[in-house]
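Forwarding the complex inputs:
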Amino acid sequence: MNPDGGPASKRRLPAASVASPHQLFEDTSAGALGRGYAAQQPPAAGSFLAEPVSSFAVAYGTTLASQGKEIVDRNIDRFIPVTKLKYYFAVDTVYVGRKLGLLLFPFMHQDWQVRYQQDTPVAPRFDINAPDLYIPVMAFITYILVAGLALGTQNRFSPDILGLQASSALAWLIVEVLATLLSLYLVTVNTDLTTIDLVAFSGYKYVGMIVGIVSGLLFGKTGYYLLLSWCCLSIFVFMIRTLRLKILSEAAAEGVLVRGAKNQLRMYLTMAIAALQPLFMYWLTFHLVR
Amino acid sequence: MSGFDNFHTDFYQTSYSIDDQTHSYDYSGSGEPYNKQYSGYDYSQQSGFVPPEMMQQQQPYTGQIYQPTQTYTPTTAQSFYGSNFEDEPPLLEELGINFDHIWQKTLTVLHPLKVADGSIMNETDLAGPMVFCLAFGATLLLVGKIQFGYVYGISAIGCLGMFCLLNLMSMTGVSFGCVASVLGYCLLPMILLSSFAVIFSLQGMMGIILTAGIIGWCSFSASKIFISALAMEGQQLLVAYPCALLYGVFALISVF
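Prediction (whole assembly, two chains):
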């Protein structure tokens, strides 16, 4: 009966011989072929979906899934402010190009004030002075990969080193943001700098770090030191000019020197934050370039 | 009759094994749709026939979607089983595997300069990307690198990252399946790269230029499909850069 069905029939035999306790297939073929093939035939896909119970199960399953998705969507806003984050990612290529140029050469830029539109700052797409999160995030990931590359060329690479670099850079970033927040709180500055803004500003230094590491890979230690000092200088100027508008009061921001302990303290704070950047840039890259 | 039984044999042979049967028997009474990979409907003794939408929601890389297509002989099967089966959709359509769309998407990837049609990404099809991931792992195997785990891990993390980024950057959101599908399709040129690695080593200058070119090709087509599907203007390079980072990691695996 089955000339070439030897192995298959052998495989089928155990199932067919213990038909009743292991009857895996309910005969869903609507009795069309009779009970003879009940234990052996696989019901086709359609019949199983056509059964009312299975269609109910399908519907139940989909409602479960959509309910789960709804719950995640509702609650994710509590932990991660998605709409606020969307503002920082509303960028386009022109903005990113200009901002990168500004990060590396901020000396000629005149107007550092973020434009406002009815109390809300304009999206980064339309104003080069607005902070964004695209550049810091991409720069961070690129920094990790370039660090892996640099270690690879020195034969010091292993996949766990990447994780180590990533977590140490992330830890330093968190420390820096927390320190800045603490000092802003202590100096009681009335500013509209949010935490995400601070993360964005602290993340801009990774661009300079990448430039330093790449030049170190291409041109050796002299190239590394040269370009790193240039990037340190530019990020220092960039931070001072950006934070001055946010931390200091209006009068001092316009260049008029206002005497007073409060403003002096704020000026020192701005300079301290800006000076931290080159420090971290050197600290996080010098061990990568030999 | 013997012919019929022969046919039964073939059909049975390729889609079932004792393991499937005993495994699914254990769960036939569970009633919990999403606990196990072989989802426990009351009638679901055949793991191979679970609808793909369910499978995709659980785990994109089950591979179970694949098996039934090899046993696909719809007309002959249905003609034997009577009226219940004649008015059912063919198996591939039910499983959501549309060969025409798969071919279209593959062509879109292979012609990076051709303008992409935004609507082709409307259905998330993970069958094609699965094939490409497996093919990539297979070509790596030919060079002696057994790194399927790395390939899957990196693609999972990369897809997750791209999913978060695209959701934050675009006006309309994306689903994870769509991101995984696009990134999987654009892995096709990377398979070319790793098959070159079989023939000659990629660590020379020629290899570096070839690697850079292929990374650019992959990320360019991925970003092209993404911006046409999500209607993001002026952001193609911004989307291409993280894709390039992801494909760069794949290239690292192939080269080193």
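The radius of gyration of chain A is 31 Å.
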